[in-house]
Amino acid sequence: MKVDVLLGLQWGDEGKGKVVDVLTPRYNIVARFQGGPNAGHTLEFEGHHYVLRSIPSGIFQRGQINVIGNGVVLDPVLFMEEANDLEKSGVDLKRILKISRKAHLIMPTHRLLDAANERMKGDRKVGTTGKGIGPTYTDKISRHGLRVGDIAENFEQKYQAAKQRHIALLTSMGSEVDVTALEARWMQGIEYLKQFDIIDSEFFINKQLAEGKSVLCEGAQGTMLDIDFGSYPFVTSSNTICAGACAGLGVAPRKIGEVYGIFKAYCTRVGAGPFPTELFDETGAEIRRIGHEYGAVTGRERRCGWIDLVALRYTIMLNGVTQLIMMKSDVLDGFDTIKACDAYEVNGKVTRDFPFSIEQGIKPIYTELPGWKTDMTHLTSEDQFPKAFSDYIAFLEEKLGVPITIVSVGPDRQQTIIRKH
Ligand code: GDP
Ligand code: IMO
Ligand code: MG
């Protein structure tokens, strides 16, 4: 069997959690391959509302196995809080969740380093989620990291060595360090983690595939936040692209099947960094208000703008997207007209290709389309789409070169329209 991948094509928060939950019944296993508790994936069904951070979004269906892969960075305290809440709501997590031995651990000092790095960057700060993501991946790459599998042997010694390194670094950056309280809680988290099935997830997944089982990989963040191809340096510290699923789970590239690319009918971004189609006017405020564009975890205001087809073509190319999923089109239900950026003007020249830097001098060139002026939130099939909406889909498919196979018209699991193709 092949491994399908679902990932964000914009700057995150596209609605990945919702669609992973919807697609889970088609799969045997759901696996996260990168990122950590910087993610906030929202699921709504039967009146429930959940926000998942480190735990995959396939835990609420029919007992599918969920895997936290080696590419993920795990904070034991946040994991314990998240898992405890889920267990209280009746999810039998210890039965269905497996965690890779090779996933890296986020330490309390990583969070302090995240804050210190941001402080030192001044007005070039990234606006991180403050969860220690960058410093944990830095330690992984510089070969200093602590992994889940390390808990089994001489852990205290390994932890102390890593902590002392961090303290020296923090002191050199002028930060006061007292981790006593944080550390005690963190060690509780480590003890809690030991109750879970800690596995060699690369073997598990490949064996399952050999037995004919199917896997859905759940991306976190979005391609425009990818460490290599995103709007560097205003990015996260992992490969959010499809290739990240191979490295973050130990799945060979030729085993990748469908690649679901998910995007909003407009665009949002949280944190700092360039955003060519950002709207600073009343329209941007209206999208934020109607779309409830505030961070799922931090409550931070999301910056809003029109859909950017130049960036989408780039992210579709990088991921080899085979199917597109359009989210939150209902947010635009009341708009008279809708704009889509199909090209940039850079230093007086028009380009349809994504440039090296989008930090300065980018003028979006818009195509204006008629709005559909219909409440779409109750629609159940594409036959009910208003003509202007069908035309909008046809326009996007023509510009992006990939079919839109799923349209989401509200946050609930039910508000999902699977198109015939
Ligand atoms: P993720 O990080 O990609 O999983 O996305 P988030 O959960 O951070 O943000 C998506 C937000 O949009 C959540 O509040 C969802 O409940 C909500 N949402 C998802 N799909 C739709 C949709 O089609 N319409 C509307 N109005 N809201 C949606
Ligand atoms: P989900 O999975 C949106 C952003 C942060 C910041 C940058 C780096 O819910 O889509 P980090 O803490 O990763 O070092 O922050 O990336 N960011 C996200 N933005 N959705 C996310 O995740 C994000 N995870 C990180 O705001 O700009
Ligand atoms: Mg999110």
| First-to-last CA distance | 22 Å
Counting DSSP H or I runs of 4 or more residues, the number of helices is 12
Biggest sheet features: 10 strands, mixed
Strand content: 15-25%
Main attributes?
globular, binds magnesium ion, binds guanosine-5'-diphosphate, alpha/beta, 421 residues, binds 6-O-phosphoryl inosine monophosphate
What does this structure look like?
With 421 residues, the chain is of the alpha/beta class. Helices cover 31% and strands 22% of the residues. A ten-stranded mixed β-sheet has the order 9-7-5-2-10-1-11-15-19-20, sandwiched between helices. Strands 14, 16, 17 and 18 form a four-stranded mixed β-sheet that branches. The chain has a two-stranded antiparallel ribbon with strand order 3-4. A hairpin with a 7-residue loop joins strand 19 (404-408) and strand 20 (416-418). Helix 2 (76-88) crosses helix 7 (180-193), helix 4 crosses helix 5 and helix 4 packs parallel to helix 6. The mean pLDDT is 96. It binds guanosine-5'-diphosphate, 6-O-phosphoryl inosine monophosphate (IMO) and magnesium ion.
What is this structure's SSE topology?
Elements (H helix, E strand, L loop, with lengths): L2 E6 L7 H8 L5 E4 L8 E5 L2 E5 L12 E4 L4 E2 L1 H13 L4 H4 E4 L3 E2 L2 H14 L11 H9 L13 H18 L7 H14 L3 E3 L1 H10 L4 E4 L23 H8 L6 E9 L2 E3 L12 H9 L12 E3 L1 E2 H11 L3 E5 L9 E10 L2 E3 L10 E9 L16 H14 L3 E5 L7 E3 L3
Helix pairs in contact: 2-7, 4-5, 4-6
The structure holds guanosine-5'-diphosphate (GDP), 6-O-phosphoryl inosine monophosphate and magnesium ion (MG).
